[in-house]
Amino acid sequence: KKVYKHRIYKCEWKIGDVYAYRFESEIAKEKGYYGRYLLIQKVDEGSWYPGHVVPIVYFRITKDRNLPSLKEIKDIECIKIARKKIPKVIYDYRGKLINTSKRIIPKSLIYIGNVNVIKPKEEFQHTNDISYFNFSWNNLEKSVIESNELFNLN
Question: Residue 29 contacts by C-beta under 8 Å, 6 or more apart in sequence?
Fold first, then answer.
């Protein structure tokens, strides 16, 4: 028997790279996001079993259906992902985008450019990458919309 050798994937994105993903799912139509863009900016790197190097990202959602310029990106607020109550409310803006191969990344992803990473003021900084919420490409729209809706209600 042949022993399967794991092919370790390393994300080629650079820190600061911004990509745009257009919302086109049924949930996006239902919730009013259809045609708008999800902006994904790599801010760090993390690991995923058995040793893949994956991006840790900020997500932003455009207000309209226009693709923003690099200058406009800094004016779009990062979406909040998770909330923890230790003694007080802590906002988490970073998510781990799970990639195990280049083929998983949608062909429709648009590279906008590289821009300096501007951290949200009240962001909680994790000490390790295990603490980040994981996002996979196959349910990215649903997960991001649900996170955004949750924090817009509060």
Answer: none
Peptide bond into 50 cis (omega under 30): yes
Contact yes or no for 41/57 (Cβ under 8 A): yes
Do 132 and 95 touch, CB atoms closer than 8 A?
yes
* CA–CA distance, 88 with 79 (Å, rounded to integer): 19
pTM, two decimals, is 0.86
Q: 74 is written with which tokens?
A: 């800094």
Which amino acid, 19? Answer: Y
Q: In the structure encoding, which two tokens stand for residue 93, read together?
A: 């803006």
Each residue's pLDDT expressed in tens, for the chain with a length of 154 residues: 788 777 888 999 999 999 999 999 999 999 999 999 999 999 999 888 888 899 999 999 999 999 999 899 988 988 887 665 555 666 688 889 998 888 888 999 999 999 988 777 766 666 666 667 889 988 899 989 888 887 765 4
Cβ neighbours around 76 below 10 Å, total: 15
